[in-house]
Please model this.
Amino acid sequence: MSTVYILFSTKINKFYIGFTTTALEERLQKHNHEYYENKFTAKGIPWEVYLEIKCNSNNQARKIETFTKKMKSKNFILNLKEHGYQFLLEKFSDC
Model:
């Protein structure tokens, strides 16, 4: 199963949007244990899962990840959690 995930760091007060085909807990551990030491997420440790979107395919997950990143909006991310993300799954259902 493919998952789009949004992490939040209280340390830097930022969100990180990613995509994985592995277990989210495994990916979170990598972000929190400097597996990606020279990447953006190394600056925000510790990260916590803010939102998890389970997708039907890798293609759907990549499209949702790209769309969410292009929004470049903290409010958009906050609204996804508050009002739901079902519209994203529907918007990219044909992927």
User: Anything to note?
Assistant: The longest strand covers residues 2-9.
